[in-house]
Amino acid sequence: MPVKTTSANPDRGEPSGKSRYKSDASVPRVLLVGSPNVGKSMLFNKLTGRYVTVSNYPGTTIELSRGLSQISDRKYEIIDTPGMYSLSAITDEEKVASDLLLNERADAVVHVVDAKNIERMLVLTLQLIEAGLPVILVLNMADEAEQLGIEIDVAELERILGVYVVKTTATTGEGIKTLIDRIPQVRAGRFEQIDYGSAIENSISVIAKQLGEQGHVSRRTRALLLLQGSCDYAGCAAGDGGSPGADLITNAIRDCSSQIEHSVHYHITFAIQEKVKQIVRQAVSFPGAHVRDFRERLSRLCMHPVGGLPILFAVMYFGVYKFVGGIGAGTVVDFLEGTIFETHINPLVVRVFSTIIPWQTAQDLFIGEYGVVTFGIRYAIALVLPIVGTFFMAFSILEDSGYLPRLAMLIDGVFKKIGLSGRAVVPIVLGFGCDTMATMVTRTLETRREKIIASVLLALAIPCSAQLGVILGLVAGHPFALVAWAGFVGSVFVLAGTLMARLLPGAKPSFYMELPPLRLPRPGNVVVKTYSRMVWYFKEILPLFILASVLIWIGQITGVFQLLVAALVPVVNAIGLPDKAADAFLFGFFRRDYGAVGLYDLQNDGLMTPNQLAVAAITLTLFLPCIAQFLIFKKECGFKIAVTTSLCICLIALATGFLANSLFNLLGIAL
Amino acid sequence: MICSFCFRTFDEELARKQCSHCNPLIECGRVKCPYCGYESPKEPKSLKWLNKIRMKKK
Ligand SMILES: [Zn+2]
Questions:
Q1: Do B9 and A92 touch (CB under 8 A)?
Q2: Where are the domains of chain B?
Q3: Which residues of chain A register pLDDT less than 70?
Q4: What is the pLDDT of residue A434?
């Protein structure tokens, strides 16, 4: 290896005024930057050898590795920065990396990218060059890219970007020698300036005039960061050039966001990505152009407001109706419930417990109608496991294929027509988001009335995916009930969205623009994801089922259970459901999916018509999310608001169920 | 870990520190992606253990 290594630099990074990072100013400094998993650390090791110091970046828990390298008879300090995707930082690691780039001396910035995914990586390269930093672009994992038949024209890239471009394979050390030769010759790049649109460009020039000189980062870049809110005033604006006009800057930022449709971040990212696409077309050739073409077209179709709907419909039909409804809730449940539990386990357990426990009341705790074994464990294993399992598997396949972000874009496109954004809500619905709701409500809204309305709407509109899975499993066997459910819940969702847009007009979601690739799901990933999700769900659900069994047992002895059920019977009757459904709705107060699970027995015994199933599923989807959520609201908004909100949600859910039932009866619809 | 929604890599421990705890009853079993807000379940201990064994064999 051509690099001689010396022992570690003894000084430690201490905060000292503006520059937090103290080191010998006469030693040129090289920063290695790039996103995670591009082989940056391996490259760092190849450049520095074994003598490396690792210390926390001042004021943080984030570790930085530093080492020394001998390059053409001169010592260079090499710093491995934490992984970053963009100069406008989101995570703590990115903030450290961005802070190093903005505020510290860098004699060369080596941007390491994964050559296979060059399209997704060049965004940061352009940002670094635009900032006026002395960049060297390293196309790492060049061997893998070559194996995939990706041809990158280095000379053409150098011509377009104006910086040195080096192909490397850090694992074998190939290309490292060229990189080392390039470091002393590094130069700032230059490319045709990106046009971010008149509103943003005007604000940039207003802000840039107020900024002093600071480090070697261009005023344009600092203005862009200020506009995106990803740099605080002290970090970007204050420099040696006198006191900047803080008011002018604040006004410019406000004016800019009022003139554009989306967030500033969105417009900027979009413009850079367009530029990247153009550069890639000029300098990179991919194999199997028709496969890429097909993927690109399919991806666009998934997001199209009209063309995307048949795809969504197909996903629902095969994923939910056929797989979850047919196999999970049908075949597997029948086998586990009917064969394993009903004919084998239950009789055995009943025989064992009735011989060892002579008292009827104590027997009921284990083998009664809501006994720990006959209810708690049987429900968890024979009903919830297959339904949740199949749902989570279907869901993991969708996740791993990269369909979900496209679904978010599709819903966003449809929602935009009625003046609101779905992109912020979809990840919350599809993930298991619940803390987002509470924080969204408390951060942005001032008055009590608004808080109540907004939290009611959010709680109604956002069932988490686990709840969605169980409730869908209930109706999945009846296609028309499924359609009725989708229609009603979809309408409430849109209605809630419209009202939210009126309530939270200023809340523009800053959502990423970069779509992950559409790909065939990998079986290994699907298994891991399904398994993780099921472990998580069972940790939360099984203990509560057993607790519910015990509570009901106590309730039955004391008569409280019977009282509560008696109070709920008229309510469930009012929405057209049989008396027995009252038990299930009582569970629904714990979590809405428990309520749905409680209805499976009724459905299996044929005690509910498809109409009733649809009504029950609609009501439960809109019901109180879960006890945990109630506690968050209590914590964030106070007891009164939490109780009022919950009451409103119950009323709206029941009212919608009532409406659905009346509508079916009135129009004589039998699903 | 890698986010299942936006496919970006982030540090699980750091992300958990940034997220306000939503379920006061039990330890939260989810990790929220700092980039897009998507919540994924935490990788179970059994899987981490399996991964370690696999890494050791390599
Ligand atoms: Zn994410």
A1: no
A2: 12-57
A3: 1-23, 214-215, 232-244, 416-454, 457, 461-465, 497, 500-501, 503-513, 541, 628
A4: 57
The alpha carbon of B9 and the centre of ligand 1 are apart by a number of angstroms equal to 8
C-alpha Rg value of chain A to the nearest Å: 30
Separation of CA A403 and ligand 1 centre (Å): 13
One CATH from 3.10.690.10, 3.40.50.300, 3.40.440.10, 2.40.50.140 for A4-185: 3.40.50.300
How far is C-alpha A339 from the chain's CA centre? 40
Cβ atoms of B43 and B13 within 8 Å: the answer is: no
- Closest residue on chain B to A92 (Cα): B14
Q: What SS3 state is found at B41?
A: strand
Q: Which residues contact A562 (CB under 8 A, 6 or more apart)?
A: A555, A556
User: What is the structure's pLDDT at A5?
Assistant: 35
Q: Where are the domains of chain A?
A: 4-185, 198-260, 308-667
Write the single-letter amino acid at A219.
Answer: R
Tally of helices (H runs) and strands (E runs) in chain B: 2, 2
- Residue of B36, B43, B45, B51 to mutate when probing chain A, most A C-beta within 10 A: B36
Residues 526..555 of A with a Cβ closer than 8 Å to B: which? 528-529, 531-533, 535-537, 539-540
Q: pLDDT tens across B1-57, in order?
A: 888 888 888 888 777 776 655 555 556 677 888 887 788 888 888 888 887 887 776
